[in-house]
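Hi support team,

I submitted a single chain yesterday and got back a structure, but I'm not sure I'm reading the token output correctly. Could someone confirm the output below corresponds to the sequence I sent? I've pasted both exactly as they appear in my results page.

Thanks,
R.
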Amino acid sequence: MTMTTPNRDDKPFRILGIQQIAIGGPDKARLKALWVDMLGLTVKSNFVSERENVDEDVCELGAGPTAVEVDLMQPLDPEKKPAVHATPLNHVGLWVDDLAAAMVWLTAQGVRFAPGGIRKGAAGHDICFIHPKGSEEFPLGGEGVLIELVQAPPEVVSAVAQAAHAAP
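Hi R., thanks for writing in. Yes, this is the structure output for that exact sequence:
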């Protein structure tokens, strides 16, 4: 696939902000000691998935619809894939106003997505992942960073729109 430089105004979606960062380690208790006990984040929920090989505490930084989720993850089995602890900054999640349109458009521009397509994520939102590495067919990837695109719920889209109109 050849890469083209599209006109930024032609995109059928907008990235609205950071939805989450995901931090992996061999022992979630050590991550919580810093992020929850020392830095004061609040644990909102826990997500366990055999398929994703993860035991994850979903924490929150800030409040309201634009709060940032901080996921503290450890593998269920350190010998299995995905190895959520192998890269300490596991992935960055970005709110997007139209996930399906973003995936179609980005694929057409040569962006490589990880297997699995659009699916429900740990927080209940539709998600998909931009692969950390490009390929011959799809040359654009995260340059070593896994990027999660997250369908923004209406309250996030509205909060971002209100903030944009209120800005001087």
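A quick pointer for reading it: The chain is about 20% helix and 30% strand. Let us know if anything else looks off.

Best,
Support desk
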